[in-house]
Design a protein that fits this description.
With about 325 residues, the protein is α/β, with parallel strands linked by helices. It has ten helices and 13 strands. The chain has one domain: Ribokinase (UDP-N-acetylmuramoyl-L-alanine:D-glutamate ligase), CATH 3.40.1190.20. Strand 12 and strand 13 form a beta hairpin.
Length: about 325
């Protein structure tokens, strides 16, 4: 990839506007210094160093899109049963936040605790506040109304399902996909395994489904990330597919072609959020136009994300420097 090509891709990022629908998670990361064991019980004691709050879940993809210089509209649901300041106070000049409100709904929180012992830092504990209930019919109607009004103003649509309610209604998802196709919009879907099962079939027929290797294996028994495996996966999901392989990189099945890009070797600290980072960059780099470049850039951005603790983003400047320093870019 030449320097001219990279500058062209950067310009495309800044000019793009993405419409994202999905679950909001409040991600909290606390780091602390170990000071020993409690005298009363054999419990680890630590002094808090810092606590950082970040938008997570589908909002982490939004956050990465914004960090890469693009504009983004985010459609989600906000509950009133617990603290919702993390989403209501989220502000960015390129963010258009739209939401349906449910007074009795609980918002999702994931609080991760990291403890430092000398030069070693490890994840000690995670406390979740969960709610997997489907959103109300009125919320689906409200989101669909907003979606239909603004879809024409966007370059791509992202459906990001964390199995936490926003995209649980199959009929609602079908309507979102139908409207995207009717308006000739590129639509990408991503979903997580829930209770040991995949629901990627709910998104069959989109332009592109993005999965990790575990999800691909759950969708197609015996899946292998080669041309035959991708062909079977595309047939099952009636869509082009991209499979992330962790440190191994990623593979893309687009129409009748297969594209593979190795991962980048970095001293990873935390892989949390790497898949979200990959998805954001893949969307902006446009796999339908330059597949090789798209998955290479997405791999690079995902690798950089592992150098951060929690779901904190790298910067676009760091991506540019990283790509300049790596001959494969």
């Amino acid at each position: 990839m030449t320097g001219k090509k990279k500058s062209s891709i950067a310009k495309e990022f800044c000019d793009k506007n993405v419409l994202v629908i999905g679950d909001f998670i409040s991600d909290i990361t606390t780091t602390a210094e170990c000071i020993g064991l409690s005298l009363e019980t054999p419990t680890l004691k630590a002094n808090e160093e810092c606590t950082v709050h970040h938008p997570g879940g589908a909002a982490n993809v939004v956050k990465n899109i914004l960090e890469l210089g693009a504009s983004c509209t985010f459609l989600t649901v906000v509950g009133g049963a617990n603290d919702n300041s993390a989403i209501l106070n989220w502000d960015h000049p390129n963010l258009d936040l739209r939401y349906a409100y449910e007074k009795n709904r609980k918002n999702i929180v994931k609080h991760r605790f990291w403890v430092r012992r000398g030069d070693c830092l490890y994840k000690y504990f995670q406390l979740n506040t969960m709610n997997e209930n489907a959103i109300e019919a009125a919320s689906c109607k409200s989101l669909l109304h907003e979606y239909s009004k603004m879809i024409l103003a966007h370059d791509a649509v992202l459906l990001i399902d964390y199995n936490l309610g926003v995209l649980s209604d199959a009929k609602f998802v079908t309507q979102l996909i139908k409207l995207a196709h009717e308006n000739s919009k590129f639509i990408i879907a991503s979903s997580q395994i829930s209770n040991g099962k995949t629901n990627h079939h709910n998104f069959a027929g989109v332009s592109l489904v993005c999965l990790n290797l575990e999800e691909a294996l759950e969708t197609v028994a015996g899946f292998h990330p080669d041309a035959d495996g991708l062909k079977a996966l595309k047939k099952e999901l009636r869509s082009n597919v991209c499979v992330t392989l962790g440190a191994g990189g990623s593979v893309l099945g687009w129409n009748d072609k297969t594209f593979y890009a190795d991962g980048f070797t970095v001293n990873a600290i935390d892989t949390c959020g790497a898949g979200d980072a990959f998805l954001a960059a893949l969307t902006l780099a446009n796999a339908s136009e330059d597949s090789d470049s798209a998955i290479t850039i997405a791999n690079a951005w995902a690798a950089l994300s592992t150098l951060q603790l929690g779901t904190e983003c790298s910067t676009f400047g760091q991506l540019e420097s990283f790509m300049e320093e790596n001959p494969r870019c």
